[in-house]
Amino acid sequence: MSMLLAMLGEAWNALSGNKLRTFLTALGITIGVGAVVLMVALGQGTQRQVTDSIASLGSNLLVVQSGSSRQGGFRGGAGALPTLTLADMQAIGRLSPVAYATALTQQSVQLVYGPNNWNTMAVGTTPDFHFVRNWPVEAGRGLTETDLNGALRVAVIGKQVARNLFADDDPLGKFIRIKQSPFQVVGVLAGKGQSMDGRDQDDTVLVPLSTAQRQLFGSQFQGTVSLIMAQATGAAQMDAASSQIVELLRQRHHMRDGADNDFSVTNMTSVAGTVSQVTGLLSVLLGAIASISLFVGGVGVMNIMLVSVTERTREIGIRMAIGATRRTILLQFMFEAVIITLIGGMIGALLGVGAALFLSGVGNLSVNISAEPILVSFAVSAAVGLFFGLYPARKASKLKPIEALRYS
Known about the structure:
- By secondary structure, the protein is α+β, with helices and mostly antiparallel strands.
- The chain contains 13 helices and 14 strands.
- It folds into two domains: 183 residues, no CATH class; 126 residues, no CATH class.
């Protein structure tokens, strides 16, 4: 142990003798490790943000959209033809693999409260919306069957709407105007954050579906809805629920065998899995690209160590002449390479974490800083030192004492 400590001391003294060279050599490793830590943090942050956005829509969620329309040679996209009805939603809710089902229709509206006004998305829906979306109220109450059956003018607002219309005032019980119609605020939704498309989910107002259709939006096709959301009773029932929904709607819409569906069913769990896989691959790709700079830094370590061996040839000869073994010479130069890479790796990890925190705070980017990539970066930097320091160290240890002493 004392011999190893002595060699470490000698390696440190050798590096300290030329501080500028040591700094420039370690800089390549610093940049490499910092880039890896930063890229992995950004990649994992993006993956977490996308996964959280999908999860915020609700668990075990199935989304049913109206089908496409066709006029002459032109075909509209999904939702162009209002083929779904409130009765379809009620029938879906009675399926055994389905826990809850809700229907939605939405439109951008202007809200007014006193001198304040705010443009937001009004969503006409049913009471089960709160269960399907896992979206409870933070204050007051949610929509009820009484509200729906009576087409009452009540509203449940998101936190963003509450902030912009009421500031620090309590909105419960107050009246806002939606399209010149007065609505009483009966509840405030809990915070949800951004959706996958970047929209603020808290910037919304919920009203009873019947009220939206009869008094706010109107409808060319009475009783139709633009979207149905269903929550399966569990993750294992997702496929069964999807299949039964398709079969049920085909029967209700009197569709012939072989005819295309006039609706679409999307399994959001599958979407989340696919997106998570893609973003995970992106994270790995970013880390791999950043690792190239780490490799370049390792080549720089090898180059400087070869120069060091050449410059210290006479010193090596003297040490071998007074009894130093080839193994001792090998270890000393290996220690020097590892010390350089570990110092560079430590500084790089700190810079990478600092850059990630800076981008998160100033650039409003999602980052995920974990111990794993930092520890891996340390391990890789040590491996780089061993790998790229081995050849120069072997070259130094194989020098013949007499020839080394003659070198000048």
